[in-house]
Amino acid sequence: MSLATWFTFLLAVILLCFSPGPGALSSMSAGMKYGWRRGMWNCLGMQASIIVNSTIIALGLGAILMASSTAFEVMKWCGALYLVWLGIQKFREPPVPFEEVAARTEFNDTTTRGIFLQGFLVSQTNPKGLLFLLAVLPQFIDPAHPTAMQYVILTATLVVVDIIAMGCYTAFAAKVLTMLKDPGHIRWTNRGIGSLFVVAGGMLAGFRRG
Questions:
Q1: What is the pLDDT of residues 109-122, one digit of tens each?
Q2: Is 15 within a domain?
Q3: How much is the pTM?
Q4: In the predicted model, is pLDDT for residue 210 greater than 70?
Q5: Quick one: residue 189, left, alpha or beta (phi over 0 = left, psi -120 to 50 = alpha)?
């Protein structure tokens, strides 16, 4: 893989990662509720999903999975329902100031795993992510050279950029939204984010493969 090829991939990944979507919503929700440090576990969950999907594609299983209409529909509807469920949960979330949440969860390992799992599931149940990787990654692989290391380089590039992008969304929410003190403002912010989750779920439900 040439440097020019890698740079082209980098530009495509930057545009993808910084575009608002379910991952950004999940990051903002986690940042608002837990702050940047704990909210980044959500981001790490997403990166675990990216690594899993990249491995699936590198092993040649991605095309098989996407060729199955049943598997695609199951993944799509699981992702759509999960996003809607997250939206309903966020919509109904009590308007608790950040300081109270932080005090309760400071050393709660179960909550940390839950934050990580949410990020993983938001990414893993979204077939758009797998379709993107399946369509893009192989295009940047030079078959004349060992492919394993090329997949590692491309995946590492995607992970680093996505950590930065989701970290920015998490930091924004942690910096701005956690400053909300009025329960009414917190409630309507929760409902706004929850509604966007539901909309994202509806859009995913209507998604069709090209």
A1: 457 888 999 999 98
A2: no
A3: 0.76
A4: no
A5: alpha
